[in-house]
User: Fold this.
Amino acid sequence: MTKNVILGLAIVVLLSPLAGCAEPNAKEPNAAPEAKKPVVIQWVQTDTGKWMVHDMNRPTSPVVTPGEASCYDKVGTAPSDAVVLFGGKDASGWEGVKNPSGPFPWTVGNGYLETVKDAGYIRTKQKFGSCQLHIEFAPPEKVIGKDQARGNSGIFLMETYEIQVLDSYNNRTYADGQCGALYGRNVPLVNSCRKPGEWQSYDVIFHRPTFKNGKVDRKATFTIFQNGVLIHDNVELQGGTNWIGPHAVTDYKPHGDKGSLALQDHGNPVRFRNIWIRELKD
Ligand code: MG
Assistant:
């Protein structure tokens, strides 16, 4: 071993403890804990597959041309992908419930349908399940009767679940039977009725119930706007809405995946117009 090599080894042995002191990752005794790096989410799982955020290849929404909203004296129109159930003249998509093959039992007026006392309910020939429904109605301008006898009709999803139609403008009745109620079950959040004779609207998001082994498996839900005001916020309907006697309603009864939209004859001349529906996924 040469003198130089021996000298070099001696320097390394002497400096090695110093090198340990100078370790770059050593923490100061009172140093703050290191901040955790945020987790970066770049992928989302969707109905159409797994997509990177802002991926230009992800399918965009189908184009729907919106309809025109109704004004006080002008009726609106349906969006381009809606099934128009009544656009102002043609009631051929409807039938009387009492006599489905007979003549249409209600009045088809100038742009509207009107109930005829004792003619019975009417319903659509086409059947629907979960849906977005737009419908306009007008209780009679001339106020006759009170409580449930004033401008009473009803809108039945799947011919079963009633959204009450009533003239509830300064007309006291039981809360779960006022205009906008899910009859006998759910009271609307607010009373947003217009005056008698004025056109009003419901915009409804309805998800049908499902059934398994003869029992309800998933209950129906309703979100409803009356005249643009939210009156039911994703409400889960706890049972049927059929009136079977004082202070008694029905429970769920199993039925098919689709049913007619029905309108009630309750003996009062209520008008309907601009009825359209868009089918939704369950
Ligand atoms: Mg009713």
